[in-house]
Amino acid sequence: MEAKHQTGLIWFNLDLRLIDNLTLIRAAKQCQQLVCCFIIDESWFKGNRYGLNGISEPRWRYIQQAIADLAASLQQHGQQLIIRKGQPTTEISTLISTLEIDAVYCSDDPGVYERRRWDTLVKRFPYISFERVSNHTLLTERELDFPLEDLPATYSAFRKRFEPLAETFPAGRALNRLSALPPMPQRTIPSNSVPFVEPSGYLKGGELAAHQHLNHYFDSNAPSRYKETRNALDNFADSTKLSAALALGNLSPRQVIDALRKYEQTQGANESTYWIAFELMWREYFHWYLRSYQEKVFKFSGIQGKKPATSFYPQRFAAWCKGQTPYPIVNACMHQLNQTGYMSNRGRQLVASCLIHELQLDWRYGAAYFEQQLIDYDVASNWGNWQYLAGVGADPRGSRRFNLDKQTQIYDPDGEFIKRWHGDQAVSQIDFTDAADWPLS
Description:
Number of helices: 17
Oligomer: single chain
Strand order of the largest sheet: 3-2-1-4-5
Number of strands: 5
């Protein structure tokens, strides 16, 4: 196909990969020259409305590893990743104007602020082409059998509609590969930021590491035991550990479903392998949930418009963040999160239940802290799950409250997890009898 644009700009965001990157493939086909860029948003390192300061060290380290890996992969294809740090619309505007860009490509991000920035650029440069490509989900909006305004109100209803569509993904569909990339224009803009990459970390970021982990996981028998082990609090092999790679787009969900289908063909399908697809569908649902409800996903009253009977107590919130609550299992989970940037699915449910029901705190502060800390932070899944647990989201049963003593007996009966992450030591570090700030009820 003959290129229809002279110089295109691909703005990488949730698609830090070359394989199965539909946005990059589209840009490569349509442009004679191509500029590749990643914008490090300066707001990541500033305080926000919840009194939190930027992103955590583990999360930033993981992002930097992914950026560096993408830059190295592009270099092998004769390209260069321009890394700019600043305000995204300002940086993209500078690139458009300076390099005479006539087409801009970006993966379709469901985030509210991200979509507003895109719309700002479209209005600012009405004479050039802007194209958002569905690149972060199993199905595109066109492939759904319902309009977004008719998104099913619950996951169960969504799954019944979506599951037959997802079954159409046979092994091999995801393997969209680049043959070549267009060259860079002779005139360019240098990077103003270069990631400092540390090799350490709970998980290593980047497409190469993600592929190695994907292959290692599906070369084992772990997928056949996933449903039985997924709630373990601390064992690395007990869950897929693919969420971080999916969050930054080091892997596409199509690649994961492709690997799963191949595994089922050779090793057999069972309830556990189905449950991996089940979790991918949850991720899919929250993506369209955010696309559909937008600002309501971040409101205290949620999509249901009902306010929880909670408030905000600074001392309680600080104790929860530091893992200094009266609940050892919660403390251990928070220590794990703060040190590694990771927490198990079960752990996330327990600490969220504690914040909302035991500490009676505004759920949005918990969601914002997860945004700061989690290396697998995904805006749609994170805020959608917190709404679900707070009873203001997609759960028809209302808020979910966990008995923390019972959960401890089930998931840490010998206290090994609490001991490993020092959950007991933190309990006495704060005075919880201060009724002025900690009115327990």
